[in-house]
Design goal:
CATH architecture of the largest domain in chain B: Up-down Bundle
Order of helices and strands of chain A: HHHHHHEEEEEEEHHHHHH
CATH topology of the largest domain in chain B: Butyryl-CoA Dehydrogenase, subunit A, domain 3
Strand order of the largest sheet of chain A: 2-3-7-6
Shape of chain A: globular
Bound molecules: flavin-adenine dinucleotide
Strand content of chain B: 5-15%
CATH class of the largest domain in chain A: Mainly Alpha
Oligomer: heterodimer
Number of domains of chain B: 3
Number of domains of chain A: 3
Radius of gyration of chain A: 22 Å
CATH topology of the largest domain in chain A: Butyryl-CoA Dehydrogenase, subunit A, domain 3
Helix content of chain B: 40-55%
């Protein structure tokens, strides 16, 4: 057991830290929310500096480093309060799935442009009739010569309105049993027949969308795996979405805890310092402890991964615990403002930062598998309890 | 970053688990806990034989043992001797501990004043004789030697020179005693800044140890809950199919993993004298103590009526969990200190 960086890791961390200090300007930090073009430019700079795709294969734009380096990057980026990469769905879901299932040609075609932020991806899994029950999806793909012809509707697709590509779960065999009839396509979002209609979230932002597919022709070789592999391929995606290694989540929580501490140390709207209230002190300390527990749980899972090639089960609860911590933390922050928390626009406290993140946090226990589904998974797969269905 | 225990440490864990499971099955544990002393007097020599009391053990080695003695409570003053007292002992006394010839504990709390490990002690020493009154001394009636906090530092006093009043306790295998010293012969162990610094280190260690034991307790409670949920049938199905039951188990699992991560972090910080040791130990103690209570309460609920009986082993774990959570103040006391690091 040793919690220190190796000399190589320490050097990487130091270099990254000073790079972030010089490069993550305030304008880009602001762009973390809203200004997508600025965020895209930031993504390009990150990529040129070599900080995107750290663990991805070297031939395809990555650096082939151990996951420890990705953990260091995420932690330092959060500590510097630097914005993230614009292509979250691509980086965290589409990319790893392509690496696991794609042909060399597919890797060549998609990965570099994904890393540089030049091409943005979205995920088309959920449908109006199938959310938690992903395998009940009905969007269909029928082979016609060299093309799959796709018809159907997806919903809640984040960033689809910005996306160039979509990872799409479709039904290719209506007669096969539920899971076995699924396949996994890569679809050009600019193709004829694709219509995107933004949906506004409770924050007011149109972050996710409906996507309609009307006779969309997709080249036959734009499939990951073979026809019928869709469920297995989708599981790879979900594994990464929920955070095979949840450093993105614990680092994000660290960023929020840091903001929270900053918030409570300043005088509030009534002139009093929230940090002088013992109940607030207790609640803030609780979230700091929670954050450390998730951080070190991730490191524990990482150790298992490096030793055995499989991430340890201890990490399976990180998304669940993180989502609830983020909800508590952001609500606590809003409570500090009292009714001022309601004021929007230019007069909103903290420019609306806490307003936005408190509301956005309610999605955390729904997206990427609801908390109920995650509890089912832990009960059945980790604890071996009998299946409820 | 390497979070794994060494191969030797994992071996030690395996031995410890087997030894404890064999010696303290649930029936035997109950017998000892309900006995006059709450102590398995014969086990101490065995511990020495197995090397559990060796001064050379690192805190990470001890961490493994502490987790296992939470999983199967060890009915002997191991925590008191190895965690609370040992760091203060001189070489000669430490050698006796290592050979299994001596058990010890720490006596710090006094009646009617703040009772934290780092609060000022009123006991005094003059002419090598110690006078004062201590309460809630862990395993106070089961040890040979007291390490006593005084206004002038830490002193060692033989149990035979003190007036010990044992108390009954919820956790029958870890009973507190009140101890009075009326001019008892006392040997100085540490004074001044050295004593304060030593006591700080003992507290960090004790917090890490509490967290480790709590992890063992929570793991056993979870194992009992999961086994019962697979076995017990109602409405024609194992109760584990009902989400009201299975989701409790999932929540306990998640908290347990978080607690374990913090406990190992704290243990490593103690072993390495890391600058983050204070915060890590506060965090681990606060979180793991509460996680153990949470695990036991959910396990009791998941067992229905049988879990509410004296016969079932769960209440033994519940009471140990409560002792751990209350040790040196409830979680909010540790969080208040964490808050000071963060906000002041
Ligand atoms: C912010 C946000 C972003 C998203 N982005 C995307 C995206 O980019 N791409 C995409 O494909 N999808 C996306 N989703 C969709 C998300 O994956 C689904 O909303 C989620 O899987 C739940 O599906 P549902 O909405 O149909 O709810 P339902 O499945 O209908 O669930 C409704 C309620 O029933 C509960 N429930 C359902 N089944 C069970 C069960 N077996 N046991 C216990 N409780 C159950 C659920 O937990 C939930 O509380 C996003 C969602 C959100 C909120």
């Amino acid at each position: 057991m040793d919690f220190r960086d190796t000399p190589e890791e320490a050097a990487f961390r130091a270099e990254l830290r000073s790079w972030l200090q010089e490069n993550a300007s305030h304008r880009e930090v602001e762009a973390g929310r809203g200004d997508f073009d600025a965020l895209r430019a930031w993504g390009g700079r990150l990529y040129s500096a070599g900080y995107v795709g750290l663990t991805w294969p070297e031939g395809f734009g990555g650096r082939g480093l151990s996951p420890t380096y990705q953990a260091i990057y995420l932690e330092e980026s959060a500590r510097a309060d630097a914005p993230g990469h614009p292509g979250v769905i691509g980086l965290n879901m589409a990319g790893p799935t392509i690496i696991a299932w794609g042909t060399d040609e597919q890797k060549q075609r998609y990965l570099k442009l994904l890393l540089s932020g030049e091409e943005i991806w979205c995920q088309g899994f959920s449908e109006p009739g199938s959310g938690s029950d992903l395998a009940a999806g009905r969007t269909s793909a029928v082979l016609d010569g060299d093309h799959w012809v796709v018809n159907g509707q997806k919903v809640w697709s984040s960033y689809a309105h910005k996306a160039d590509w979509c990872i799409l779960v479709v039904r290719t065999d209506p007669d096969a049993p539920k899971h076995a009839g699924l396949s996994y396509l890569i679809v050009d979002m600019h193709a004829p027949g694709v219509t995107v209609r933004p949906l506004h979230q409770i924050t007011g932002d149109p972050e996710f969308n409906e996507i309609f597919f009307d006779d969309v022709r997709v080249p036959r070789d734009s499939m990951l795996g073979r026809p019928g592999d869709g469920w297995k391929v989708a599981m790879t995606t979900l594994l990464h979405e929920r955070g095979t290694l949840g450093f993105a989540l614990s680092a994000e929580l660290e960023r929020m805890v840091n903001h929270l501490v900053e918030l409570v140390r300043r005088p509030g709207p009534d002139g009093r310092r929230p940090a002088d209230d013992p109940l607030i002190r207790d609640a803030v300390a609780r979230e700091w402890i929670e954050m450390q527990s998730l951080r070190f749980t991730n490191y524990r899972a990482l150790t298992t991964l490096l030793e055995t090639g499989i991430p340890g089960p201890e990490g399976s609860g990180v998304k669940l615990a993180w989502s609830e911590a983020n909800q508590r933390l952001t609500s606590l922050a809003q409570s500090v403002f009292g009714l001022h928390a309601q004021v929007t626009g230019d007069d909103a406290p903290w420019n609306g930062f806490w307003q936005y993140w408190q509301l956005r946090s309610r999605g955390n226990t729904i997206e990427a598998g609801t908390s109920e589904i995650l509890r089912n998974i832990i009960a059945e797969r980790v604890l071996g309890l009998p299946k409820g269905r | 970053m390497d979070f794994a225990f060494s191969e030797e440490q994992e071996q030690l864990r395996g031995f410890a688990r087997d030894f404890l499971a064999e010696r303290y099955d649930d029936v035997r544990l109950a017998q000892i806990a309900d006995s006059e002393t709450g102590v398995d007097a014969e086990v101490w020599a065995k511990l020495a034989e197995m090397g559990w009391l060796d001064a050379e053990l690192t805190f990470l080695d001890q961490a493994v043992l502490l987790e296992e003695t939470g999983y199967r409570p060890l009915a002997a003053p191991y925590f008191s001797t190895a965690v609370l007292a040992a760091p203060a002992l001189d070489d000669e006394t430490a050698k006796q501990v290592g050979e299994g010839r001596l058990t010890a504990t720490l006596a710090w709390a006094e009646p009617g004043v703040p009772q934290g490990l780092l609060d000022a002690a009123g006991a005094t020493v003059s002419g090598g004789r110690l006078t004062g009154e201590k309460v809630l001394v862990p395993d106070g009636a089961a040890v040979d030697l007291f390490v006593v906090t005084t206004a002038d530092g830490l002193y060692a006093v033989d149990a035979s020179d003190a007036a010990v009043t044992p108390h009954g306790a919820l956790d029958g295998t870890r009973r507190p005693a009140s101890v009075r010293f009326d001019g008892a012969p006392a040997r100085p162990l540490a004074s001044g800044d050295t004593a304060a610094e030593l006591l700080g280190r003992i507290r960090d260690r004790a917090y890490a140890a509490v967290a480790l034991e709590a992890v063992g307790v929570a793991q056993r409670a979870l194992d009992l809950l999961v086994a019962y949920a697979k076995d017990r049938k109602q409405f024609g199905k194992p109760i584990g199919v009902y989400q009201a039951v299975s989701h409790k188990a999932s929540d306990v699992y998640v908290r347990l993993q978080e607690a374990r991560s913090l406990a190992y972090w704290a243990a490593w910080c103690v072993a390495e004298n890391d600058p983050m040791a204070r915060q890590a130990c506060l965090a681990a103690k606060a979180f793991a103590g509460e996680a153990a209570v949470f695990a036991c309460e959910n396990a009791i609920q998941g067992h229905g009526g049988i879990g509410f009986t004296w016969e079932h082993v769960l209440h033994r774990y519940y009471k140990r969990a409560q002792w751990l959570a209350a040790f040196d103040g409830p979680a909010r006391a540790q969080r208040a200190e964490v808050a000071a690091f963060l906000m002041d």
